Amino acid sequence: MKILFICSQNKWRSLTAERLFDDHPHYEARSAGTEPGARVRVTAGHLGWAEIIFVMERRHADRLREKFASELPGKTVVTLRIPDKYPFGDSTLIALLRDKLATHLPLL
């Protein structure tokens, strides 16, 4: 399954989430950011590739709907409600991600 993680800058939360799936046998993950200065900025191609999209905050889902309305029909977008206060690889962030993703990704 192809999963996409979205946050603002693609430096901390979404990148940490993507790294959780490095070499995972059942999930292929990518990440991107919604803002102009993002490490990797989300494109229509990312959304087309993804089978499920996880955003960290509601505003990220709003941005996707505003900019990519024609690419989102039929896509599942899940808001994880993880605030922007954890640095890349933070153990609390990893625990939050695992907990929140468990109900959506049973093979985690």
UniProtKB/TrEMBL annotation:
Stretches assigned to coiled coil: none
SMART domains reported in the protein's UniProt record: LMWPc (SM00226)
Residue ranges of domain Phosphotyrosine protein phosphatase I in the record: 1-104
Gene3D superfamilies linked to this entry: 3.40.50.2300
Organism domain of life: Bacteria
Listed InterPro entries: Ptyr_pPase (IPR023485), Ptyr_pPase_sf (IPR036196), UCP029416_PTP (IPR016919)
Protein name, per record: Phosphotyrosine protein phosphatase I domain-containing protein
Taxonomic source organism: Hymenobacter artigasi
